[in-house]
Amino acid sequence: xxxxxxxxxxxxxxxxxxxxxxxxxxxxxxxxxxxxxxxxxxxxxxxxxxxxxxxxxxxxxxxxxxxxxxxxxxxxxxxxxxxxxxxxxxxxxxxxxxxxxxxxxxxxxxxxxxxxxxxxxxxxxxxxxxxxxxxxxxxxxxxxxxxxxxxxxxxxxxxxxxxxxxxxxxxxxxxxxxxxxxxxxxxxxxxxxxxxxxxxxxxxxxxxxxxxxxxxxxxxxxxxxxxxxxxxxxxxxxxxxxxxxxxxxxxxxxxxxxxxxxxxxxxxxxxxxxxxxxxxxxxxxxxxxxxxxxxxxxxxxxxxxxxxxxxxxxxxxxxxxxxxxxxxxxxxxxxxxxxx
Length: 340
Hints:
By secondary structure, the chain is mostly helical. It has helices at residues 3-16, 20-26, 29-50, 56-71, 86-93, 95-104, 107-130, 145-170, 179-200, 202-207, 229-256, 262-284, 299-312, 316-334, and strands at 140-141, 210-211. This is Squalene/phytoene synthase family protein.
């Protein structure tokens, strides 16, 4: 990468991408640039969607402007005043450079980046429209499990699809892959990661009036009053079970990556292990969904996962044993919620 590209997809990306930066940074160079750029553009859109102090209509208009700029409309204006903290402002101010890099990508890669970011913006727009006016006193929930399935595709499953397309395009060792099968596995893997986020962030979301737990999974919920902890508890078990099932597709995805593709294997493995560890903590958390007692994986455990993965990723047997153990730990933690 050039110094300018490295500053954009290195230093800036590290400041705004949390733990997923590890996966982005370890990707092979040909794959790293389009995938990292897609993530950077999506983070800019997320910054706009999450801006407090502005109406849903204002944020939707700003998202539309960003979508139009990404699609190539240079007349669309990105409003950097939407960012409230320095990192977010720096991210939005970097958009002209990011869009120039998008224009320099291989046309096929650029088209794929535009598609996935547009889909992610669809998810953010759905979020703003569905939860418009929601408060802790007048909460809004998702209406069905199908709506949750659609939402998790729009904000995460589509990334698994994009990841598969980019990996096959840039890794000759993956040309033998069954593209529809692997894309479907990637979609389920992304959905599992988002379900984990939904459960982890449930307390904070409820405090803001947003409930991503579908109403049919909360039969005790009563219209006209705030959702209570007991309402949410009935949804935890089926959603933990669904996440575990979809993480199994993530396991099949990771193990289908040849051992020779070490960087891609590591990048695909780390979110799986961190996600399973987070489910384990969600199952153990007797205070869920209290926002003051969020379930999280400590930084030390993340570092241990990264260190252990270096030798393990070279052996299918060692990797399978590790993943089997991670599933057993998560299932045991969730057993008290009638998941297993």
